[in-house]
Amino acid sequence: MSSLVENDSDVRQSVLTRVKQYEENSMQIGKNLYKIKESKAYKEWGHRTFEDYIKGELGMDLRRAYHHISIWSTFGEMLGVAEEDINRIGWTKAGHL
Q1: Which residues contact 83 (CB under 8 A, 6 or more apart)?
Q2: Are residues 93 and 23 in contact, defined by beta-carbon separation less than 8 angstroms?
Q3: DSSP letter string, 29-73
Q4: What does the angle CA 26 – CA 29 – CA 31 come to, to the nearest 5 degrees?
Q5: Residues 91, 23: contact at Cβ < 8 Å?
Q6: Torsion angle of alpha carbons 58, 64, 68, 70, nearest 10°?
Q7: Which run of H or E residues covers position 16?
Q8: CA spacing 20 to 30 A to 8: which of 23, 47, 54, 58?
Q9: Quick check: 77 and 34 in contact, CB under 8 A?
Q10: What's the whole-model pTM score?
């Protein structure tokens, strides 16, 4: 059987790397959005509300933003789980817990 993807081992490694980066980036996004929301830094940046900042500056869906915040808030803030441990669990898995 011929390979559907040329250099499929390279493609496989690329996907694995990007998934790991996605997990790490998602955790950082959640952590930073949490800090921005709590400190109200968005007001200093000319946004009336946090939601205005999310939609206007980031172009991000509010539901997704609050999902990121919720995971960080639960694991990083309330439970004090270290970033490395959240990464080990995996962002997606943490969201299901």
Answers
A1: 27, 31, 76
A2: no
A3: HHHHHHHHHHHTHHHHTT-SSHHHIIIIII---HHHHHHHHHHHI
A4: 110
A5: yes
A6: 130
A7: helix 8-39
A8: 23
A9: yes
A10: 0.76
Burial call 38-54: b when 16+ CB within 10 Å, e when fewer: eeeebeeeebeebeebb
Confidence of residue 77 (pLDDT cuts 50, 70, 90): confident
Q: pLDDT tens digits for 21-74?
A: 887 888 899 999 999 999 999 999 999 999 999 999 999 999 999 999 998 998
Residue with the two structure tokens 């694995």: 16
Which residue, among 43, 36, 91, 49, has the nearest Cα to 68 in the 3D structure? 91
Of residues 52, 77, 71, the one with CA closest to residue 62? 52
